[in-house]
Amino acid sequence: MGEIAKYLRLGILNADKEAVVTAVTTYGDPAEFSSQLTSGQTRKGIGVYNNSNEDSGEAYYSFTGEATSGSKSMPIPVGCMANIPIADVEAISLHFFCGTGEIADLRVIEVA
Q1: Does 64 have pLDDT greater than 70?
Q2: How far apart are CA 29 and CA 10, in angstroms?
Q3: CB-based contacts of 31: which residues, under 8 Å, 6+ apart?
């Protein structure tokens, strides 16, 4: 609960029903994220913390599934929290990948 409380104190995310933290590890190809919220809960926000070591470097998120660090993706620096501007939209897919070819160790928090 300490990790969730930390994110909520930062004011990045607000929840009144449920908060779920999911570990996501990506290697080469982009990993598509699927919601881990209880069925029937409406997602209010989503954030990602890059828990990778310094050697792994930046991780990225993309809505297209292309593993290119450029205009179609956004970086998540090591040790930083990124607030992703999507809520409960099933038509939008969310993908994570590591730009250096190393392993990206991420923590995804969804709030409802």
Answers
A1: yes
A2: 31
A3: 24, 25, 95, 96, 97
Cβ-proximal residues to 16 (8 Å cutoff; 6+ apart), any chain: none
The pair of structure tokens assigned to 22 is 């999911």
- Domain regions of the chain by residue span: 2-111
Question: What span, in angstroms and rounded, lies between the C-alpha atoms of 97 and 93?
Answer: 13
3-state class (DSSP) for residue 9 = helix
Q: Does 34 score more than 50 pLDDT? A: yes
Q: Give which of 40, 47, 39, 43 is closest to 13, Cα–Cα.
A: 47
Mean pLDDT for 5-22 is 68
What is the phi/psi pair of residue 8, to 5°? -70, -35
Distance CA 86, CA 60 (A): 15
CATH T-level fold of 2-111: Jelly Rolls (2.60.120)
Q: Quick one: how far is CA 82 from the chain centroid?
A: 7
Global pTM value: 0.79
